């Protein structure tokens, strides 16, 4: 309130002068006198007002401009510094032979901590004291903790995935009705790429709380195909064709033999089973290739692949 004393003083002086003039002047020229006096006082008031405003607000504006400049320097400089630190940590962990999944997780943690520290520095730069900052962080922590209970569960799930290693980046996993190749294991979510190149994001808490099938954990898979032939077809020849196709497939694992057997005597077909061990990365290509080759080979050998038929007989009454 002290800063406005000059204005109050001028107002009281102006009021007293005008009142005195009004009492003393009883002549017709009194209105002109009052107008002149009022003009002089307003001019003085304007001059003092601009001077006071300049002396009072220019330092404040300069201070805020300086703080804004410091904030920008700290933000852009801090961001570059955080990226550099994360890169150095990643290289150090890589030299120690740490897996890609673990390296990325720790780099994400370091990146998050770096931005939190930079935020604290920025808040102090704009004028928040350490006590105010501590109270702000505490209250924000409680609010965020209550609002992000599910996210904290997902974060814990991410830590468990890294420790237990049910899968790593590059594995092909199946979870419920979702399957794909693991692209990224983050702090909260895991990203999968499907066979048709779609991106699927699954919360880590969901992965930990449910069953997961890691298809590529052992590096090879058993390809299983079922083929039906007619009862009049040559069973021995059909088995020889299947064995030959399985052994000649480029994705076959030579350490495991090809297995062909009669799996079922169905109503209209003899169903043969074909088991071939192939590389996990070539599973689908091998399956599609063998399915096509079996059809073409059976056609060349005259082996019938039966299909359902309905016989209709008409009896004359």
TrEMBL record:
GO CC terms, sorted: plasma membrane
Transmembrane segments: 57-77, 105-123, 135-163
Entry keywords, A to Z: Cell membrane, Membrane, Transmembrane, Transmembrane helix
Alphabetized Pfam families for the sequence: MS_channel_2nd, MS_channel_3rd
Single GO MF descriptor: mechanosensitive monoatomic ion channel activity
Domain of life: Bacteria
InterPro entries per UniProt: LSM_dom_sf, MS_channel_C, MscS_archaea/bacteria_type, MscS_beta-dom_sf, MscS_channel_2nd, MscS_channel_C_sf, MscS_channel_CS, MscS_channel_TM-2
Membrane topology: Multi-pass membrane protein
Every Mechanosensitive ion channel MscS domain range: 151-216
PROSITE patterns (UniProt xref): UPF0003 (PS01246)
Domain Mechanosensitive ion channel MscS C-terminal: start-end pairs: 224-305
Subcellular location: Cell membrane
Family under the similarity heading: Belongs to the MscS (TC 1.A.23) family.
Record-given protein name: Mechanosensitive ion channel family protein
Taxonomic lineage: Bacteria, Bacillati, Bacillota, Clostridia, Lachnospirales
């Amino acid at each position: 309130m002290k800063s406005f004393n000059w204005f109050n003083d001028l107002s009281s002086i102006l009021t007293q002068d005008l009142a005195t003039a009004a009492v003393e002047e009883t002549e017709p020229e009194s209105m002109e006198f009052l107008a002149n006096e009022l003009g002089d006082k307003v001019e003085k008031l304007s001059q003092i007002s601009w001077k006071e405003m300049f002396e009072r607000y220019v330092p404040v504006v300069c201070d805020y401009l300086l703080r804004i400049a410091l904030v920008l320097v700290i933000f852009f400089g801090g961001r570059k510094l955080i990226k550099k630190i994360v890169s150095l940590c990643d290289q150090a962990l890589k030299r120690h032979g740490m897996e890609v999944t673990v390296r990325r997780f720790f780099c994400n943690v370091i990146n998050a901590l770096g931005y939190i520290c930079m935020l604290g520095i920025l808040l102090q730069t704009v004028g928040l004291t350490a006590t105010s900052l501590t109270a702000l962080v505490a209250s924000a922590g409680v609010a965020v903790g209550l609002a992000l209970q599910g996210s904290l569960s997902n974060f814990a799930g991410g830590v468990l995935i890294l420790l237990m290693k049910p899968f790593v980046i590059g594995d092909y996993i199946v979870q419920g009705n979702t399957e794909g190749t693991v692209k990224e294991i983050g702090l909260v979510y895991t990203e999968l790429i499907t066979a048709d190149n779609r991106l699927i994001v699954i919360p880590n808490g969901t992965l930990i709380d449910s069953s997961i099938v890691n298809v590529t954990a052992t590096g090879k898979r058993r390809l299983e195909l079922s083929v039906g032939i007619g009862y009049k077809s040559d069973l021995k020849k059909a088995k020889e064709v299947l064995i030959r196709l399985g052994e000649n497939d480029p994705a076959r694992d030579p350490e495991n033999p090809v297995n062909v057997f009669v799996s079922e005597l169905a109503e209209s077909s003899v169903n043969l089973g074909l088991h071939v061990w192939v590389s996990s990365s070539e599973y689908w290509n091998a399956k599609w290739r063998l399915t096509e080759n079996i059809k073409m080979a059976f056609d060349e050998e005259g082996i019938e692949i039966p299909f359902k038929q309905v016989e209709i007989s008409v009896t004359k009454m």
